[in-house]
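Q: what sequence does this backbone want?
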């Protein structure tokens, strides 16, 4: 018992000494901001993107991100969460399909028009300056990915849907810059057209992107979606690895040059194989007889350990879409930014050209999936087109437009040999006053469409978008949008992809959307 009491006294004594020691307050340290213990004043426009005022031109400009000084680096971590509620209606909402049971025949299927959608994105960047004044940095954009959700009775619960979501890299590049000689950006990032336009002459004036694969367009069935031909801030334009040079601005003018070996964005010559397009939009089917619209399959995931059909770096091959691969993609362009007579002006023009992989496979109609009298041979033409836009701003009003035309087919895909050239134009207007913006944008274009219909028919697309957005608080905005779309191609069933068909050659869709976004 005495031993226990002595041990207790010793313990109390130790506690007393410890209390005395801790009574001396430690030196105060600031709380770590990453643990949410510090309140920050929000900036008016959080940098919820990777292209910023430090990495988008030869000279760093004032903007949301601090400009680095010699011997410093500015690091930023930003994000975006967007929530939309929409309703969409189209010609493809309901149809008859074969019942997957012998002897039953057909039955009707119909999609629900209303939905609530959401997505998340993360943006990371570093903008530094060496002691000799050289600017340099890097940027990363991560997006939430949505794989095909369960489409059978095996899983229809929400948990099964969320487990298909991942994060993927959408942009990743490094840059070096000097105010006197220009900026070089290398990696998976915007090209000359995307940088020169920046969504201005293509009137992407609310957070959804309007006609550029916007949230409302994504809500409509894929067969009713009109291509965004004009490339500014378009995934097929910025999704591959490329070299981009922009000159310093002289009297409002700057020059741009871009080169990419192919449409791959990987870290080797390997990648998905199996006949899918390498980063481009597949106007035709990934295999003979399949759907004539939509994005081609990415293939089996077999990497190109040996030269094989479907390799991202392919220069020739016998796959039915091997000839559609872009190689040696090159762009040159000129831009003007300035004020003339009190009117703000942004104008640019660019010319893009490329080679193409050589098709070495059979040219029979059965292999290529051609209907009778089709002139499609499996061969394609290299890119050769011009693109330009202009936007004029005065007293809060902006009007302008964009045009693209030449040898291509849809959004930066190759035109089949003998196919129809592409011609598309866009016009828009918007008004900005304080935190409020309202506007309208419309597009129309003709292009080959389904490559198997070469020499037979061509495709036409039209769309119009009305939208308004209000910034409630720094980083928080609400918006509303209405969109109408129309696509036509004779001899193509635009719902099933069937060729030589007189059904569903013309389909339309429309929709309304309400949403809000938080950028931080």
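A:
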């Amino acid at each position: 018992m005495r031993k226990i009491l002595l041990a207790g006294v010793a313990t109390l004594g130790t506690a007393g000494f410890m209390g005395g020691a801790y009574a001396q307050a430690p030196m105060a340290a600031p709380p770590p901001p990453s643990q949410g213990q510090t309140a920050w004043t929000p900036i008016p426009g959080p940098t919820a993107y990777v292209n910023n005022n430090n990495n988008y031109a030869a000279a760093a400009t004032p903007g949301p991100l601090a400009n680095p000084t010699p011997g410093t680096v500015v690091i930023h971590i930003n994000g975006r969460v967007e929530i939309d509620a929409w309703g969409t209606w189209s010609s493809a909402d309901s149809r008859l399909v074969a019942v997957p049971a012998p002897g039953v025949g057909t039955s009707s299927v119909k999609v629900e028009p209303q939905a609530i959608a959401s997505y998340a994105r993360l943006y990371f960047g570093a903008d530094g300056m060496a002691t000799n004044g050289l600017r340099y940095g890097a940027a990363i954009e991560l997006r939430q990915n949505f794989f095909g959700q369960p489409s059978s009775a095996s899983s229809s619960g929400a948990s099964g849907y969320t487990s298909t979501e991942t994060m993927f890299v959408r942009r990743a590049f490094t840059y070096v810059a000097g105010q006197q000689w220009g900026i070089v950006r290398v990696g998976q990032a915007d090209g000359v057209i995307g940088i020169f336009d920046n969504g201005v002459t293509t009137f992407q004036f609310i957070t959804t992107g309007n006609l550029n694969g916007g949230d409302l367009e994504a809500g409509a069935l894929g067969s009713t979606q009109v291509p965004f031909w004009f490339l500014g801030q378009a995934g097929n334009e910025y999704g591959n690895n490329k070299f981009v040079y922009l000159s310093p601005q002289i009297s409002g003018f700057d020059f741009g040059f871009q080169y990419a070996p192919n449409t791959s964005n990987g870290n080797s010559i390997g990648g998905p194989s199996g006949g899918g397009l390498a980063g481009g939009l597949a106007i035709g089917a990934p295999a003979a007889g399949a759907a004539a619209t939509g994005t081609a399959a990415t293939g089996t995931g077999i990497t190109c350990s040996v030269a094989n059909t479907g390799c991202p770096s392919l220069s020739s091959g016998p796959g039915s879409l091997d000839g559609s691969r872009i190689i040696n993609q090159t762009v040159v362009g000129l831009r003007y930014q300035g004020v003339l007579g009190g009117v703000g002006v942004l104008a640019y023009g660019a010319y893009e050209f490329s080679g193409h992989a050589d098709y070495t496979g059979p040219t029979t109609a059965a292999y290529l999936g051609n209907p009778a009298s089709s002139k499609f041979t499996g061969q394609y033409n290299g890119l050769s087109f011009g693109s330009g836009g202009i936007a004029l701003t005065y007293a809060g009003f902006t009007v302008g437009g964009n045009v693209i035309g030449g040898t291509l087919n849809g959004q930066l895909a190759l035109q089949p040999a003998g196919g129809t050239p592409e011609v598309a134009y866009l016009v828009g207007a918007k008004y900005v006053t304080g935190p409020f913006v309202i506007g309208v944008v419309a597009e129309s274009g003709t292009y080959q469409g389904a490559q198997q219909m070469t020499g037979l028919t061509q495709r036409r697309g039209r769309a119009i978008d009305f939208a308004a957005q209000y910034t409630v608080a720094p980083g928080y905005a609400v918006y509303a949008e209405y969109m109408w779309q129309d696509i036509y191609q004779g001899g193509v069933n635009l719902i099933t992809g069937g060729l030589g068909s007189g059904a569903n050659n013309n389909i339309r869709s429309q929709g309304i959307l309400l949403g809000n976004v938080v950028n931080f």
